[in-house]
Amino acid sequence: MKYETVVGLEVHTELKTKSKIFCGCTTEFGGDQNTHVCPVCLGLPGVLPVLNEKVLEYAIKVGLALNCDILPFSKFDRKNYYYPDLPKNFQTSQYDLPICLNGHLDIEVGGETKRIRITRIHMEEDAGKLVHSGSTISTSDSSNVDYNRTGVPLLEIVSEPDIRSGEEARAYVEKLRSILKYLDVSDVRMEEGSLRCDANISIRLMGEEKLGTKTEIKNMNSLTALQKGIEYEALRQAEALEDGEAIVQETRTWDDSKGMTLSMRKKEKENDYRYFPEPDLVPIVVSPEQVEAARQSLPELPDAKQARFMKEYGLNDEDSRILTALRETADYLDATVKAGADAKTAANWMLGDLSKMVNENNLTFDKAPVTPDMLAGMIALINKGTISGKIAKKVIVGMWDTGKRADVIVEEQGLVQITDTGAIEEIVKQVIADNPKPVEDVKSGNGKAIGFLVGQVMKASKGRANPGMVNQLLQKYLKD
């Protein structure tokens, strides 16, 4: 490749507090337009903001989870710009003294681990929302403004330009979203806008150190849009340079229906915002005791949990990564093991049949009708020989549909595994008699043919015959 893609991400996550960052208005998603507002978040004359202490607590937790330094002294600033969704004509944010600095996040792409540096994390208030008449801002004739979101607390997590592809950007945001979910500081629902991405993209000749002119794609609200937007924009810039055009520093939007980025406006520079300290809020002083208390309150995070699953449960790297991506999934496995199930067996059911049902019903494991105790109970029946693995596939569907435990379903439907040698023997004899060709194949040295006969015995027994006993009896009679 002639050009190298260089990407830095600004990830905005709404915090899961009950009230807004500087007032008591609800942060609940939805509601009639302009009903979750008050004089403070609307910026009416004479009002004074007060910092929501929970926002600071969450910011410290996120900073620690992302390996940042927590600044003992930070402050809020006014970021001045004019846009219809900003009622005060400035955003209360943090500029030169943010709450967190110098972190990093390790991602895995293509089997290799890569470290993405995090420049800073700062607290700020969200803006309102423009409600466009068309599908995108560029296709709309008019826009209305809903200020319900104004003042909802945000953390902006800014990376260094260490990302080199849309795939790496996707992996970074996926990992970041997982950590935020583990911390329970945000619901990270991209479809509702509680996690949004701005991507700064430039390209340069391979081997060069100097950064090219960047463009910014604003407010991408899905992982697919993020990856596709970066890939398209890098290609667009490369083609422009090849045609002798100069890259213009601008803000662009991703049009999903067209599969392309579109120009919105000239990109502002830092000094255009005329930052100055917020006079209505006192500086923030964080003590070492506060930081240590936050550190002690952190849950076991995805990387640590993945390492534990590999060490304690004997799972491989890929399975551990999948099972720890969501806290609900990891907690489900831990609870199933605690209920007495073998970890590897439980993991196999979770990655197979149970995962399929969870995904088809658009649920997470904590909402699954089959609880960890129920899964452990079913695995216990398999281990006792009460049911076979094949019968268990029917049982787990029955548990999902009815909410009944495995032993109840087995009893009600008569699914107890046949372990009586005489009963299985009769079925084996009949199958041998009915299938002379496969029998002859086995006797001629075709070992694979026995699999067909096993299948016929299992079919005749409606899956209830003990597979081990079936194999033993077939081997016995086929030798005669």
Put the structure in a nutshell.
With about 475 residues, the protein is of the alpha+beta class.
Characterise this structure:
The protein is of the alpha+beta class. It folds into 3 domains: 3-292, no CATH class; 300-413, no CATH class; 421-479, Arc Repressor Mutant, subunit A (Orthogonal Bundle). Helix content is 40%, strand content 20%. The protein has helices at 53-65, 166-183, 223-242, 288-296, 302-312, 317-324, 327-338, 343-360, 372-384, 389-402, 406-413, 421-434, 436-443, 449-460, 467-479; strands at 3-14, 69-70, 73-74, 77-80, 90-93, 100-109, 112-125, 129-132, 143-146, 153-159, 195-205, 215-220, 250-255, 260-266, 276-277, 284-285. Strands 2-6-7-10-1-11-12-13-14 form a 9-stranded mixed sheet. A 3-stranded antiparallel sheet has the order 5-4-15, with no helix packed on it. Strand 13 (250-255) and strand 14 form a beta hairpin. The protein starts with a strand and ends with a helix.
